[in-house]
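Anyone have tokens for Tektin? Sequence:
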Amino acid sequence: MAQLNCPPCTPCASVCIEHQPIQTETSVDNPFHKPRETTAADIKDYQKELLTSPVGLPASDPPPYLPQRAGNSDGYPLAKPMGPIGPWATGRVDWGALSGQTGTRPVVNQYSITRYSVDEWRQRNADMINACETTVDHSIQVENASKNTIIRTYAIADKTQTDCTQSLHVRAKNIDDLKCELDRAISSMQEEIAALERQRRRLKQSLAVLRMPEAIANECLERRTGRPDTELIRDRPEEELIQEISLISEIKAILLQTLANIEQQQSDNRAVRQRMEFDWSEKKVAHENDAVNCNLRNQSTNTLFKPGATRCSNEQSTEIYWEKFTRETLDMYHNCRHKSEQLRNTLDAILTNAARDLRTQADSVERALASRISCMEEIREKLEIDLRTVLQHLADTEIQIDKLKVAIRNMDYAMMVVQTRLDNRNQRPRVENCRDQPQNLLIAEVKSLEVGSSAMNAQLKQEEDVKQELVNRRNELEREIMLKRRTIAIDRDRCQLLRSHFPSSTALSGY
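Reply: yep, here.
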């Protein structure tokens, strides 16, 4: 389509431009233009261009303040260098800012101070516009880059803050988990300390109760030393009592050693609990600190600049050591609690076995005492029976002695009769005094009476000796019965009475 050659200064320029069709350039007219079809959008753009164009030229023609097509520069260069105005303007060559670079030599005379040509002015306008466009484009690029940088920076900051918040949540959860584990461990250790304290009180109660059987056994031995001389024998009750005292001494030594171990273990338990409480309190502070940090936002009002907050102090620990410290504390708790439980179980076994052994030995002592008392009762009864027999025989002997004495006295009467007869016969006169048969019989009678008297006197002597022996036996039996009764009184009325207060197995176990 041909261009209209309407000069830009005519009054009909705007009308012609309004009614002329949109011009399209070819690659010959403008090598940088790519031909295309006219569309409704092009028409709207062209009408907008008419409103903004100061000269009303088509979009394909440059404005008059820009380099024109007649030039030979890169875009629209200068047509020719500026020369003299005319012969009337002699002029003189003056220095210009562009001299030596643009090839211009300003012409100056007495009427003009012109230094640049119109083409240079248009080129400068084009340079200014291009520089402005370049600056605007650079400004737009910088603005877009700034916007992108802001968006990217805020996105990175938000992501970093979200990651840090998530990391703080994870860290707070880890701290809370360990804090809860420490809390459970502290509660468990407190229960263990209370249980071990109950066992310690039970042990001390058992030691206090153990004084009673020890005192009873010693009292029984001391009382049995008061037996009479002939009853001071090493019998089975004495052996059992000595064995009981030895058993009590061994149990007492074991209980005292166990009490020392319990007190040491209790001290270790309290030390471990104190360490866990310190760790728990520090984790509580750390958890509260991280909980506050997790809730901080950009809109929070309690945030401030903290210069030097990124500095790490020399006292800070590593995360590995942090977890290792808590795990070591928990391992110490587990080991200490295991030892405490073993000690409690050992104490239970010791107290149970001690109570069983003491009760078994006490039963042995009581059986030995009962057997000994029964034996003493039997011998006492036997001795009493023998005493009654001796007393009966002593009475019979005394009666027999009396009978013998009466018989001996009665023999005197017969002796007197026969002796009187013999004396009377000896008074016979001479031949009549013969040894006749009556004389021989009387002499034989005297001899017989003397033999009978001698026999009865000998028998009397035997009876008196037997009586003395019976008296001695009676004294000995009475003394033995008295000794047996005293021994029975010591074993039954004192020892068995004391043994009746012997503590039970439950009391010996510390309950």
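The two ends are 125 Å apart (CA to CA).
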